[in-house]
Amino acid sequence: MSPNQATGPLIAMHGVDKWYGDFHALKGVTLEVRRGEKIVLCGPSGSGKSTLIRCINHLETIQKGRIVVDGIALDDSARAVDAVRREVGMVFQSFNLFPHMTVLENCTLAPMRVRGTRKAEAEATARRYLERVRIGEQALKYPAQLSGGQQQRVAIARALCMEPKVMLFDEPTSALDPEMVKEVLDTMIGLARDGMTMVCVTHEMGFARQVADRVIFMADGAILEEADPETFFRSPQHPRARTFLGEILAHH
Amino acid sequence: MGWPEFLFLLEGMKWTLALSAIGFIGGGVAGLAVALARTSGKPVLERATAAYVSLFQGTPLLMQLFVVYFGLALVGLDLAPWEAVAVGFTLHASAYLGDIWRGGIEAVPRGQMEAARALSLGYVSRMKDVILPQALRVSLPATIGFLVQLIKGTSLASIVGFTELARAGNMVSNQIFKPLLVFGIVGAMYFALCWPLSLYGSWMERRLAAPSR
Hints:
By secondary structure, chain A is α/β, with parallel strands linked by helices. Chain A has helices at 3-7, 49-56, 78-87, 103-114, 119-132, 148-160, 178-193, 205-211, 229-234, 239-250; strands spanning 11-20, 23-33, 38-42, 64-69, 72-73, 88-91, 166-170, 197-201, 214-219, 222-227.
């Protein structure tokens, strides 16, 4: 590991632009994430926050700018993409568990196929992470037999089994019934306490207040404001951020 | 109609089965390649296989068998009738199965592929472990429906001089002049091959429609 890898930012995005056809989805986004840092991305729907984190593991391609993850420059080569994805875990709004596999198989697939881990070892790791998200007793069930909150916790465990250096959360609680939001947020808070680097797209402002080192506000594909949560929630500077916070807080 | 005639029909039925099996195995392997190419995201591959599928879906199986049987002979490939027929059925089945399975692959929710990518799984693992098991499940009823069609379609191989069940029936009928009896038996034999498959297909369909495990 080069010194730059150990001490430089874990994620560095510089002047990133993305278009979907004519639609300018990301406009000159520059963002650095330090090791161990927890970032919450918020903003109105269509503001590009999901697009932004999906660029970090190359689920979306960019047209301009530069993304470096853990010292690896993300070009479009399969090699760089694979190397980055191995270090980046992702949790989706719709869980995306593999429905034809048990919870345990969901968690062991990638370590076995990508890292070449032996089955027994992969299962031991999987059971450890399933315990950690407090779902160990469901290991042999299929995803459809679990509640939404349980499925999302499995999805978190599945990503952790690859022992990533950073976790991306793309609205992880938006598809959940209200009573299940807390169990998922608690899992994420636990993860944050253990020092995981996290980039979370979420509207859960309580979560942001509690764990975020920085809150980043986006609108229309650009970063308009970034601040520590205390400052951001007490005195948002940008008018769009004030409007957005007003709307969010009115509902909570 | 005596034992020898019946045994002759059974012999024909054996060839019908063999042809179906060849068509299904050959067509299955080639069809998988077609389905993967059709969903590869590579415009050249997608267009080429789309054209291939349209060509074989848009022309009669009989013409395809003629073209392979006589066409390959013209370009100097001297194939035995069963070889030509096997090639013909493989091509035919690969186009249909390729299209059925393409539909199955496209029916798998986008998020499945994204999750697999995010986990850093390579193409082979993404398809083999994640996408295809789900795609083949939803495609199973249509796949079985096509297999039934294929079994009946093998009767066309008689045109190029191949003695399968239909042609065997024709020969026996010409010998003993009891077409109604002979073709009744031949029909029953086809039915005995196809019906269990149809039953299996509708059983699978009910099972898949039931809420997931």
